[in-house]
Design goal:
By secondary structure, the protein is α/β, with parallel strands linked by helices. The protein has two domains: about 10-245, Aldolase class I (TIM Barrel, Alpha-Beta Barrel), CATH 3.20.20; about 255-334. Helix content is about 40%, strand content about 15%. It is built from 14 helices and ten strands. The chain has helices at about 25-30, 45-50, 55, 75-90, 105, 120-130, 150-160, 185-190, 210-220, 235-245, 255-270, 275-290, 300-305, 310-320; strands at about 1-5, 5, 15, 35-45, 70-75, 95-100, 135-140, 165-170, 200-205, 225. Strands 3-4-5-6-7-8-9-10 form an eight-stranded parallel β-barrel, surrounded by seven helices. It has a two-stranded antiparallel sheet with strand order 1-2. Helix 7 packs across helix 8 (about 185-190) and helix 11 packs antiparallel against helix 12 (about 275-290). Bound molecules: flavin mononucleotide.
Length: about 325
């Protein structure tokens, strides 16, 4: 499948944009482990055009993470256009527009998923951005605002007519936030619409290679996007890509291989930020990782791990994992 002139081959798998998660180090790691495209955290168009330096740092792209999409959000068409032009100078492969963020401070103000309640403005933003940049523009959104307004099938056509190069759909409404299960039936309906020519990227609740293959097969989507399934488990891309290519399960690595990846992630965050902030930033991954689950009597050690505030301290605790768990198949730890 292709987005603009970028050829992703068949059944590509993307790393979802996630605030506070998909910074440059995590994106590079996921890319290295098989993600076919990675997305930045969402970036405020207002902050970009006001030249806020912390926000501008989020535009940094590494050569080895490409193709990469920079995602922006906002509710003002002029600001979104200007922000997209600023993003373009950073040289992303794709500029993605966020119309799916459900968080109150954003959606209630009319940005992110808030635009699902103002389709004319959403379409105006898309038209202005598409006209303003040469980079392919994509959209990521949800099924609709709430259960009574699941408008994605009609909306997809309207967005396509505005010139977007691909559409990513998270199979939930804004009201659902992250509750319940993602409903892929409407994603399939969008894909089955003969008027839809642009690639459709399906997103929501992919936590295993098996589910990923099932979504490709049962919904016919052109690509699948994985978010939470990669937190504390970036190797999911390796597993999924292997299963897609071979139909089989990837042989597991020794426990230490997975642990070393987590440690590497901590080190990269520390290098990028500083020791304290790097460790804080890594905690979400450490808390979510399946690596330490089900190891008997490990609860206190896990708590200590989440309280550690130096790299040496954290790694010493990680290394307390009873030696017999090293070289154990990961299955044992799930
Ligand atoms: C911590 C976190 C941060 C997120 N930040 C963003 C974001 O910046 N932009 C966006 O479009 N979606 C964001 N999302 C939503 C994800 O991209 C994705 O649509 C959602 O998590 C559903 O996919 P999943 O079930 O694979 O996690 C975020 C989700 C999480 C859990």
């Amino acid at each position: 499948m292709k987005i603009g002139s970028i050829d992703f081959g068949s059944r590509p798998v993307f790393l979802a944009p996630m605030e506070d998660v998909t910074d440059i180090s995590f994106r590079r790691m996921c890319k290295h482990l098989g993600a076919d495209m990675v997305y930045t955290e969402f970036i405020s168009s207002d902050a970009l055009i006001r030249h806020i330096s912390k926000t501008r740092l989020k535009l940094e792209i590494a050569g080895d993470e490409r193709p990469v999409a920079i995602q922006i959000y906002g509710k003002d068409a002029g600001a979104m256009k200007e922000a997209a032009q600023i993003c373009e100078e950073a040289g992303p492969d794709i500029i993605d527009l966020n119309f799916g963020c459900p968080v109150k401070k954003i959606a209630a103000k009319g940005a992110g998923a808030g635009l699902l309640r103002n389709i004319p403005l959403m379409l105006e933003i898309v038209r202005m951005v598409v006209d303003a940049v040469k980079t392919p523009v994509t959209v990521k959104t949800r099924l609709g605002w709430d259960a009574d307004n699941q408008i994605i099938v009609e909306l997809a056509e309207m967005l396509q007519d505005c010139g977007i190069a691909a559409l990513c759909i998270h199979g939930r409404t804004r009201s659902q936030m992250y509750t319940g299960n993602a409903d892929w039936s409407l994603i399939r309906k969008v894909k089955e619409n003969p008027r839809i020519k642009i690639p459709i990227i399906g997103n929501g609740d992919i936590f295993s290679a098996e589910t990923c293959i099932n979504r490709f097969e049962s919904c016919g989507v052109d690509a699948v996007m994985i978010g939470r399934g990669s937190i504390g488990r970036p190797w999911i891309f390796r597993e999924v890509k292997h299963a897609l290519a071979s139909g089989g399960q990837l042989p597991e690595e020794p426990f230490s291989w997975y642990l070393n990846l987590l440690k590497e992630q901590v080190l990269q965050s520390v290098e990028k930020l500083d020791e304290r902030r790097g460790i804080l930033h890594s905690r979400r991954h450490i808390a979510a990782t399946p690596l330490f689950k089900n190891i008997p009597n490990f609860r206190q050690t896990r708590i200590d791990m989440l309280r550690a505030d130096t790299v040496a301290g954290l790694f010493a605790i990680m290394d307390k994992v009873p030696s017999e768990y090293f070289n154990m198949p990961l299955d044992y730890c799930r």
